Amino acid sequence: MKNITTIAATLTMTVGANSCSRQHPLKDLDAQRSTVVTEPGIPWQLQFTVRTLDGTPFAGASLYGRPAVLWFWAPDRPEAGKQAALIQASAARNSDITFVGIACSRPRAVTEFDGQHQLTFTQIVDPAATIAMRFGIAAQPAYVFITVRAQITTVKKPLGQRDLRTRLIRLATD
Length: 174
What we know:
Layout: H1 2-21, H2 28-33, E1 49-51, E2 57-59, E3 68-73, H3 80-93, E4 98-103, H4 107-117, E5 122-125, H5 130-134, E6 142-146, E7 152-155, H6 161-173
Parallel strand pairs: 3-4, 4-5
Antiparallel strand pairs: 1-2, 3-6, 6-7
Protein name: Redoxin domain-containing protein
GO molecular function: antioxidant activity; oxidoreductase activity
Pfam families: AhpC-TSA (PF00578)
C-alpha cells in the first residue's frame, strides 16, 4: 500500500509539473486583441455626425483636441432666452473655445428661436436627444465642457455668468 501511495504521489507531481511548465504560445490574433493602446482616442460621446441648423455636416469628433462647450437647450424652457444671451456673449469673448448649441426640440422651433436671439455659434437640432443621452443629460439647460485632452465635464443645471466665466477660464488654461 505504501508503494502505491508513493507511485500516485510521484505521478501527480510529475503530471502537475509538466502541465504547469508547458508553454502555450499566444496566437497573433490573441496578441493583437490584448495590445494596450497608450495614445488617447476620441471619446465615444464625440463619435457622432449630424447636420447643423443650416444643413452643414457636423462631426462631434471635430471637437477633439480643442476646448469646447456644448450647451443643451430647448426653446420652450423659460430660461432659454437668458441662457442664450449668456452663451452668445461668452462665445463672442472666447474665440479660442468652440461653442455648440444642441437644441432638444423640433427644427422649426429652433429656427424661430435662433432668429429671435441671433445666435452666431453652431446650432444642432437633436429632437430625439440622442446626443444628450451620450452625456447623461435628461433635462435642459445643461452644459458639457471638453478640454484639449478630451476630459469631459457635464453640468446639469443653469449656469450664472460668474460660474460660466470661471469654467471658461479653467477650460482655456487647461
